[in-house]
Task: inverse folding
């Protein structure tokens, strides 16, 4: 499975603007921009296990493609959503529980990088990861 492995953040594009659109305060945005995120992904058929480790939190997430689940963003914002596989992309659609607005996320392998793209309220951000 292409996503399997441990991925370490290398760089981000427009991440602070994305966090601002989410309503995250300036101090948390500054810290979040340097979160040192490491993601470990294991796929077994339609089931995924994802471990996120950063300077701020460590969390284990288990989900099945096409099945809705609850997820908390790093700032504590509660969402409910689903991941699907569209071609070679993982596509996530998450709805915030506090305001009903939608956060879109994709994960795809581009060359030797895992690229995560987020879109919220018209603001797009990309985060680029290399295998650890």
Result:
């Amino acid at each position: 499975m292409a996503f399997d492995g441990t991925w370490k953040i290398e760089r981000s594009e427009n991440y602070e603007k994305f966090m601002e659109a989410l309503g995250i305060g300036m101090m948390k945005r500054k810290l979040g921009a340097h979160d040192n995120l490491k993601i470990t992904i294991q796929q077994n058929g339609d089931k995924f296990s994802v471990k996120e480790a950063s300077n701020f939190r460590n969390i284990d997430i288990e989900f099945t493609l096409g099945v809705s689940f609850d997820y908390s963003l790093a700032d504590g914002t509660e969402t409910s959503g689903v991941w699907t596989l569209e071609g070679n992309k993982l596509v996530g659609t998450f709805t915030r529980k506090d305001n009903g607005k939608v956060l879109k996320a994709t994960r795809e392998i581009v060359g030797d990088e895992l690229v995560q793209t987020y879109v919220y309220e018209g603001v797009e951000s990309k985060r680029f990861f290399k295998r650890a």
